Amino acid sequence: MKLVALFSVVLLTTAYAAIPNIWPAPQSVTSGTTTVVLQPDFVFYSKSTSTVLSKAIGRYKSLIFNHEPWDPATTMPSVTPLPQLTIEIYSSDETLQLGVDESYTLIVPSNGNIATIKAATVWGALHGLETFSQLITYDFVYHSYLIKNAAWTITDFPRFQHRGVLVDTSRHFQPVSVLKEVIDSLAWAKFNVLHWHIVDSQSFPFESYSQPKLWEGSWSLSERYTQQDIRNIVQYGYNSGVRVMIEFDLPGHAASWCTGYPEVCPRSDCREPLDPSTEATFELIENMFTEITGGAEGSGLFPENLFHLGGDEVDYTCWLTTPHIVEWMSEHSYTCEDAYMYFIERTHSIVSGLGRDPVNWQEVFNHFGDKLDNETIVHVWLDHPKLAEVVAAGYRGILSNNDVWYLDHLDTTWQQFYLNDLVEGITDPEQQKLVLGGEVCMWGETVDASDIFNTIWPRAAAAAERMWSPATLTDTAAALPRLQWFRCFLNSRGIGAAPVSNTRARQAPEGPSGCYTS
């Protein structure tokens, strides 16, 4: 049961413009007129023994209390002390998978009592901590940390289960430190998935113990991820409530596999799609996937239940011009379409046997429709209306329509990101439930460590609100001041988010000015 069922929920009835500087907007919020001041001995308290929670409290202490001195003056007018935040978690289960309860209720009183976060799981508590942190401001005159407009009552939960950002580390390598900063910023916007498009045709930076020659396809010896790097990233995400969903795009987008294992590719001068005619291809895939998942009973490198297999943009040219593949197709009376389906079925069987649900890009559904196994999750990117067909066929879907949710499309405005309704054209409530959520995609052709953050932010935040907040919040003019505030908030935490008003995602700010408006 969602935690929100335990509390009386007041629907958001205030004018949109009156929503406080919280991003994404909560499901329900009420406020008052009192200013409370956090005491120098302010306490974060919980009976929970959760290591995840204790680490989060440590992070938020550093994020919140980042100014010195901290000396609330007794002369500060009209303030009430706030001595403590108590965090109550009702379940000790810290499993982080699709569908986990992320709800919370935050109460900040105006009468000097303690503030409280109540959550069904630690993951909801983390969201509550983020919201609490966004309410706090520092008064430079009185050297005090304040929360204005108490008493606050915020009841909150996400509209969609799966809220992600895809990061591509094949077209340009992203250092471990950058990926950890990406995870930080995702959690602050209440995203809960890093979709890691780790390899592609250009580079294979991933270390496999079972198939050690694979990363010979990396850009260089210095642009690789060791297995310990990967463990650190996945654990870092877990501690922030961010699942890491891995993608190995097959059978197309796989030329880099051929550097170390040329036997799995059609031929040296035509390297993709991978060769479906040899068992060597599927032995390599199964060995590596078993290694990184730990098998059906293990967690391996990637405990995430969703495993992205790509499957997009499969060009048959290399199959049709490679004699031994043509011969194999003839022996089996296969067309290229049949060979494509054979490859998808084999990889699905491998992943399902490892206890994971396969995710494929839209083309797999376009080609094979209801012939796909029931566990398939279809990731729609070519055209939004296809999502309605996916769920009507009984499949679960994720939306990343490229016309408005691709971050590498620099001309796409934040308003377009904001107005992208995931369930548009889907009226059946049962079919709407099959829409797991969505992702914005940071493809890496023109992005490296130098510009990734000002390309992701703040436009990704617009999508974050669409996936978290009430569907009725669609007024971009009213949302603009809060988005401008959130951009400055990210900057204050060290994330290089670009100005909201730019037109090419990476423009410099216009002239000298402050970031926040008083």
- Shape call: elongated
Strand pairing plus helix content: what structural class?
A: alpha/beta
Quick one: how many beta strands?
A: 16
- What's the architecture of the largest domain, going by CATH? Alpha-Beta Barrel
Q: Identify the CATH class of the largest domain.
A: Alpha Beta
Number of helices: 17
Proportion of residues in helical segments: 25-40%
Spans of 5+ residues with little confidence (pLDDT < 50)? 1-17
Mean pLDDT rating: 93
Gyration radius over CA: 24 Å
Give the terminus-to-terminus CA distance: 41 Å
What is the CATH topology classification name of the largest domain?
TIM Barrel
Hey, roughly how much beta strand do the residues contain?
15-25%
Sheet with most strands: strand arrangement: 1-8-4-5-3-2-7-6
The CATH homologous superfamily of the largest domain is called Glycosidases
Largest sheet: 8 strands, mixed
**Total discrete domains:** 2
How would you characterize this protein structure?
With 518 residues, the protein is of the alpha/beta class. It folds into two domains: 3-156, Chitobiase/beta-hexosaminidase domain 2-like (Chitobiase, domain 2, 2-Layer Sandwich); 162-473, Glycosidases (TIM Barrel), CATH 3.20.20. Helix content is 31%, strand content 18%. It contains 17 helices and 16 strands. The protein has helices spanning 51-64, 122-135, 176-188, 227-239, 257-260, 279-293, 317-320, 323-331, 336-353, 362-368, 386-392, 402-405, 414-418, 429-432, 452-456, 459-468, 476-492, and strands spanning 28-30, 34-45, 79-89, 104-108, 115-119, 136-139, 144-150, 152-156, 162-168, 193-197, 243-247, 306-308, 357-361, 377-380, 396-399, 435-442. The strands form two sheets. An eight-stranded mixed sheet has the order 1-8-4-5-3-2-7-6, with helices on one face. The chain has an eight-stranded parallel sheet with strand order 11-10-9-16-15-14-13-12. The chain is elongated, with a radius of gyration of 24 Å. The two termini are 41 Å apart.
